[in-house]
Specification:
The protein is of the alpha+beta class. Helix content is about 25%, strand content about 30%. The protein is built from nine helices and 22 strands. Strands 4-3-8-11-12-1-13 form a seven-stranded mixed sheet. Helix 3 (about 150-170) crosses helix 9 (about 360-365).
Length: about 375
């Protein structure tokens, strides 16, 4: 490539990136890991890479190692050193994907669309995927729900994940990106590739989001299985949200996560309760059984109360929705559901989709007193970084 051609090509690259990035979301990758070395490959097609004034191509089958060395990224292929950069920008050509395989520490590889920017951070390589909103949402839906669901289920989740994006897009703004790829934000493991219905659902729902009575994006919480009744935000998080209230859910009962149980010895249970302030009174008969009619915040023994949330955390239980029985000399915890129980029950929504419910009906079943609107209608947008 001549110098003139190279300059023209770089100008096109910079112009295209600035225009694309202005309408994209920026997602921090492997955000919870101190990745210090990665291998970059082109999973399909080829990649265009640019670092500190140097332009090069990563063709399919070619592996490029990027190693953190102080405040620099040492970049080399199997034959020679490519360069030592402060920042490396890798853009997938049309139809291509950027495959990233962390090797220090060793982690599973993931494929990403559009552009990945790598830079030296404190004791780690910071990697930010800059991509179109629709591409990101498709990846989130697949990571959060898996493949093989109905179109209406995926449409419901497209609206839910989009609502979260628009409501939290400034969460990591001070760090130079919109969201991370962990469950702290929304789980994102790269390109959606296992179910064509997922990107189709994102496309079909346009820019619709869920808003409350003040036209603000709702906290579109969801969990695996509610066990027959969803939890209120007030009980779970001490936050009163009128759209996150208990809902009786008959749709999730056939799934394995709807019921669970755990048994412990009576002595072990007594020691646990005493550790948390329960006092044995020899003059009072203690009945450890507790059978709430529905979800309730506390387990109650005589006048002693202990939050179900604390018991769940201490015993690593599936949910806070359970009863307590004394059977055959043991304490039996008879549990329902999996997760915090607030908002949409994923397995219940799967069954609603299987039964032919539309996505709007699924959303309004789990989130009460809400509206579905276009983000552009209420003039809300993702902030540019």
């Amino acid at each position: 490539m001549s110098e003139k051609s190279r300059r023209i090509f770089l100008s096109i690259i910079f112009l295209g990136c600035s225009q694309a990035w202005a309408n994209s979301v920026w997602i921090s990758l492997f955000d919870n890991s101190q990745v210090q070395r990665v291998v970059l490959t082109a999973y399909t097609g080829s990649l265009t890479a640019f670092g500190d004034g140097k332009l090069f191509t990563i063709t399919k089958g070619k592996a490029v190692n990027v190693v953190l060395n102080g405040e620099k990224l040492v970049t080399a292929d199997t034959d020679s050193l490519i360069g030592i950069f402060e920042q490396l920008t890798v853009t997938a050509d049309t139809g291509a994907t950027v495959r990233i395989r962390p090797v220090l520490p060793i982690m599973a590889s993931r494929n990403y669309e559009a552009t990945v920017c790598l830079s030296a951070d404190i004791d780690r390589i910071r990697m930010i995927n800059r991509l179109d909103e629709k591409q990101y949402l498709a990846g989130v839906i697949e990571a959060e729900t898996g493949a093989g669901r109905t179109e209406e289920f995926y449409k419901a989740f497209a609206v839910i994940c989009r609502t979260y994006l628009y409501g939290h897009a400034n969460r990591h703004e001070s760090e130079g990106f919109h969201l991370c790829d962990e469950t702290h934000c929304q789980s994102y493991k790269g390109k959606s590739r296992n179910d064509a219905k997922i990107p189709a659902a994102v496309e079909a729902t346009g820019d619709k989001i869920i808003v409350d009575s003040d036209s603000l994006p709702v906290l579109a919480a969801y969990h695996a299985n509610c066990g027959g009744e969803t939890e209120s935000a007030k009980n779970a998080w001490q936050i009163n949200m009128p759209y996150l209230i208990p809902v009786s859910d008959p749709y999730c009962s056939a799934f394995a996560n709807a019921r669970w149980e755990k048994t412990v010895s009576v002595d072990e249970w007594i020691r646990y309760l005493m550790k948390n302030g329960f006092k044995i009174d020899p003059a009072v008969v203690t009945d450890f059984s507790f059978h709430p009619a529905g979800r309730t915040p506390d387990y109650i023994v005589n006048t002693f109360a202990l939050p179900f949330k604390q018991i769940r955390n201490d015993w690593n239980l599936r949910s806070t929705f359970f009863g307590v029985s004394l059977e055959d000399g043991q304490i039996r915890l008879d549990g329902h559901g999996y997760g915090h129980g607030v908002g949409l029950c994923q397995e219940g929504a799967v069954e609603m989709g299987n039964r032919g419910y539309k996505y709007e009906e699924i959303i309004r079943f789990y989130y009460r007193n809400v509206r579905l609107v276009s983000a552009s209608e209420i003039q809300i947008q993702i902030p540019q970084l």
